[in-house]
Amino acid sequence: MFNAAYAVANGLLMMETRVTPEALDRAVATIAGMPNFAGINADRLRRELEANNNVHVGGYSVIDDRDFKAWIKAAREVRKFDFWSRYRKYLELRKRMARDVVEQLDGLTDDILDRLRDPLTEGEWDRRGLVVGDVQSGKTSNYTGLICKAVDAGYPLVIVMAGVHNSLRSQTQIRLDEGFFGFDTRLNLRADQQNQRIGAGALPGAPFLVAHSLTSSMESGDFKLSTAQGTKVIPGGKDPVVLVVKKHVSILDNLCEWLKVRVEKDDSVPGGEIVRGIPLLIIDDEADYASANTNEYRDQDGNINENANPTNTNKHIRRLLTLFEKSAYVGYTATPFANVFIHHEGWSRKYGEDLFPRSFIINIPAPSNYIGAEKVFGLGRPGPDGESRGLPIIRAVDDADTIFPPKHKKDLPVAELPGTLHEAVLAFILACAARRVRGDVSVNNSMLVHVTRFTLVQQQVARLIEEELTDIRRQLEYPGTGGDALDRLEALWRNDFKANFLALHEILADHQLTPVNWEEVRKQLFDAARRIEVREINGSAKDALDYAEHPNGLSVIAVGGDKLSRGLTLEGLSVSYFVRTSRMYDTLMQMGRWFGYRPGYGDLCRLYTSSELVTWYRHIAVATSELREEFDLMYATGQTPDQFGNRVRAHPNGMLITAANKMRAATKVRAGFSGTISETVSFDTASAVRNLETFSGFIAGLPTIQPERDRYIWTGVEGADVAALMERIETAKESWKANSRAIADYIADRLSDGLLNNWTVALLAGGRGGGRHDIGGYDIALTRRENKSPGQKGKYTIGRLVNPSDEMLDLDQAQIDAAFDATLAAWNLKKPPKRDQPSSPSGPFIRRQRDPSCGLLLVYPIDTGAGSTPLMGFAVSFPWDENAREIEYAENSVKQLEDLFD
């Protein structure tokens, strides 16, 4: 009943020119007065309507090759876009997607299609693009909308490549069954009026639309040649065909075999075969995974080797694309670096062009109600009020290694669970109960446990969790029969959930979180606990966790490992328990699924993990964020995907990603610092005394000056002196970007061209709460920064070091205004709807204002507490220099960084 009431109320709001508090009140009052909705929870209805209509989106930016003509707007005037119209209604009425988000999706999918080709275009064409979004931010909804419009426009064949495990392929098929087909493909692969309608097809008055699938969401539902031939459906026939397949060589081989019915011989094309007159659209979900060619593609002289053999999956995707005279490829990913590192000239005689997104790259910011790394970890730059606050939801796991040793065998016996995992199970029960108090009874709740990659160990963990749950249910159903579960639940509620509610309510102010008291939660504990099931996740189709089969909601604790495919969505995910199970990067990518949308329960979410994983996820999230800033700069200056690829390959942040991914074929790594900022965020405490002495000696050698508002600022400092300073200090190997030796080499190189010879050096006193220390003869108030890695001995990791305003202290007002104008101009170029207008200049635009001869060194002495030696944090802001050369990182620095991800 609530979903129906929400749909009607939302329909009323759509008729309003603007959603105001008064409009919300009118809509809710109208619904409450309807006999069909008697007894509806009006407060909850208003709260959810208000939260959804408060969602705003940032403008997206597009880098393209400018080799296209806009066509979709004209096509929508003369062709029927029935699949899209039906899907849009489904998003608004059933999925409760915010109006701004739907509007952006409509505009974005139009922009993507414009940069592909009108399927009616004659001749040969081949378009390659990439869409970059955040982890679990709605990429499936995005490409479902794209598929709807592509089929409406006339694309007869769409192939969706959905990961390498049945679980993700099955879940993707379910989503397309609901959003595109409108019927359950498990019952019938071909469109038929008798099909069981679901999703968009089950909307009242929804038209029946014809499109066939030769795949289904069943375990055995992937593409089979015999099944396809048995249906008599042929590619490019009267009706459109949409397939959802795994990125497996055998599956892709069978696809090519099925397509032979349309193949002609043509020795002039790679592979010698071609399909004419049938436009193909390939959607590559998780495009950074398995699709990129990681084999060497150059000869010993560094030239493209046309006879080089690509990796298997890569060559089969390329084979499909080159087989068609007219083809379009769109990759979707949250970690685009593998795709951008593909060489833009990569080519093979047999398989044709590599998958570099040469036609376009689109960067989509997440909506305001998305809870991602920036909110969780507090990755924003420090401001006047100090450090950016993360969400107080991360709980340290420091007791798992004794039970799950990092390199344990597949037959490891597990007799007990870590105490932190027991606590995490209690936290999940509390989260389920509190959601029930808020009215979320018939909803999905998920908890993820990721402690081992071995199936036999997972089975033991699942059994122990089930035993724990059984005992808790007994205690809750029969109080007084022994056990302290209720006491532990109450203590955790009061010491954690209640204690942190106000802080979470403040940070998540637009999430409409309502207070919940213990007595209300206690009454719901048994009903919440008895609904929880324990499932093992091993990569099969049933791992899609049949939420659709549970209309009243499924509550599940999913125990999984490395086979838990990336991209799989665990609905209603509130508690995650993570320890490192294999290579660092693989574990981090698994951990990324924790982010997403948490409507009405963001304060109930908890992430149990080690400080090591948190530290490295922060590093990768910051690197990703900074490269996206570079993207916006290149968008504003009209750069192409090729130019962006070159920029990322030469960017210090690119080095981190390639080290993590083991994507470099050679041991030599080169990077350029032009237009970048390098800041220390990780420190080895063992080098604190030496670095303090080095910085103190450097500052003592500068002219004596008086402070300006707690800042000591020197101008006209020689570049050679700064380079010598960088050579003498020691930076932690985790501070890959602020590698002092590489910075020293870069400065020396630019000095050889007569540049970077004029520096501003600023010694910045701290704000509130820090101690004081003598730095080079000056009594300095130290900067206070919280240690984000308290469990790592000898390490001190902070959030972000530099306050954005500090990076402008060497600019005059005209330069600051010019940087802001350029930032605003870039924002104005982005497509509406957008409500994230910048209020200050962006870093890349600030660095463009500085003359190539001028550098900026910012020094932040950091108070670690207890009177210990201050850590000397520093940041180097480099001007844009189009002639700057790349610097070769020392081989041992690269190896050290790669070793961290083993």
Q: What class do helices, strands and sheet pairing give?
A: alpha/beta
In total, how many beta strands? 31
What is the helix fraction of residues, given as a range? Answer: 25-40%
Largest sheet: 7 strands, mixed
Describe it.
By secondary structure, the chain is α/β, with parallel strands linked by helices. Helix content is 38%, strand content 16%. It has a 7-stranded mixed sheet, with helices on both faces. A 6-stranded parallel sheet has the order 13-19-17-14-16-15. A hairpin with a 2-residue loop joins strand 25 (772-775) and strand 26. Helix 1 crosses helix 2 and helix 10 (249-259) runs parallel beside helix 11. It is globular and about 85 Å long.
What attributes characterize this protein structure?
27 helices; 902 residues; 38% helix; 16% strand; 6-stranded parallel sheet; 7-stranded mixed sheet; alpha/beta; globular
Summarize the structure.
By secondary structure, this protein is an alpha/beta fold.
Secondary structure topology:
Blueprint: H1 2-14, H2 21-32, H3 42-53, E1 61-64, H4 72-78, H5 82-93, H6 99-115, E2 125-132, H7 139-153, E3 157-162, H8 166-181, H9 225-231, E4 241-245, H10 249-259, E5 263-265, E6 273-275, E7 280-285, H11 312-323, E8 326-333, H12 337-340, E9 347-348, E10 352-353, E11 360-363, E12 370-371, H13 373-377, E13 394-396, H14 419-437, E14 445-450, H15 455-477, H16 485-507, H17 518-530, E15 532-536, E16 555-560, E17 573-578, H18 584-591, E18 596-597, E19 606-609, H19 611-636, H20 641-650, H21 652-661, E20 669-671, E21 677-679, E22 682-684, H22 688-700, E23 711-718, H23 719-728, H24 740-751, E24 758-764, E25 772-775, E26 778-781, E27 783-784, E28 795-797, H25 813-829, H26 843-849, E29 854-863, E30 871-877, E31 887-889, H27 891-899
Parallel strand pairs: 2-8, 2-11, 3-4, 3-7, 7-8, 13-19, 14-16, 14-17, 15-16, 17-19, 24-29, 27-29
Antiparallel strand pairs: 1-11, 5-6, 9-10, 12-18, 20-31, 21-30, 22-28, 23-24, 25-26, 29-30
Helix pairs in contact: 1-2, 2-3, 5-7, 6-7, 7-8, 10-11, 14-16, 14-17, 15-17, 19-20, 19-21, 19-25, 21-27, 23-24, 25-26
